[in-house]
Amino acid sequence: MKVLFKSRDPEAIAMHELAKTRSEFVFRRLAWLISKATVSLSDINGPRGGLDKRCQVEVQVSKENKVVATSIARDWRGAIDLALARAVRSLVRRRQQSKPKTRRVRAGSIAWNLTAEPEPALQAAVAPRVRMLRRLAASNV
């Protein structure tokens, strides 16, 4: 994983090493998935102060897929940490959505054979409703 850093602000340029180490630490478990991460720092309203430090993290997953997370904070460290946390959350969410969901077997399907007798060791673990259905099925035969 490559980490690129962009900034025009002299104070932000001093945060280059921090941004690189923080992004490598945060993306350590997803590094195999990420080809490039770009951290951009900018001061929105200049030397006036306030909530004006902006950090934008752009993570390149594949050639056509990328995740962009932006945060605004009072200081550079807070902006970097918040943007990196948002980027990781977005990557994990996107990864979980792409996984196929497991399917459950319904109780009335072929997998349940109500007329067959269960093994004695498993009979104690069977739910009361299933035992009642088995008794009804046996009495109707």
Q: What does this protein structure show overall?
A:
- This protein is α+β, with helices and mostly antiparallel strands and about 140 residues long.
- It folds into 2 domains: about 1-100, 2-Layer Sandwich (Double Stranded RNA Binding Domain); about 105-140, no CATH class.
- It is about 40% helix and about 20% strand.
- It has 5 helices and 4 strands, in the order E-H-H-E-E-E-H-H-H.
- A hairpin with a 5-residue loop joins strand 3 and strand 4 (about 65-75).
- The protein is elongated, with a radius of gyration of 28 Å.
- The N and C termini lie far apart (about 65 Å).
- About 15% of the residues are buried.
H and E string: EHHEEEHHH
Cα shape: elongated
CATH architecture of the largest domain: 2-Layer Sandwich
Instruction: Write down the CATH topology of the largest domain.
Output: Double Stranded RNA Binding Domain
Number of strands: 4
Sheet with most strands: strand arrangement: 1-2-3-4
Helix content: 25-40%
CATH class of the largest domain: Alpha Beta
Strand content: 15-25%
Q: Flag low-confidence runs.
A: none
Q: What structural category characterises the helix and strand content?
A: alpha+beta
What's the main sheet like?
4 strands, mixed
Radius of gyration: 28 Å
List keywords for this structure.
141 residues, alpha+beta, Double Stranded RNA Binding Domain, four-stranded mixed sheet, 21% strand
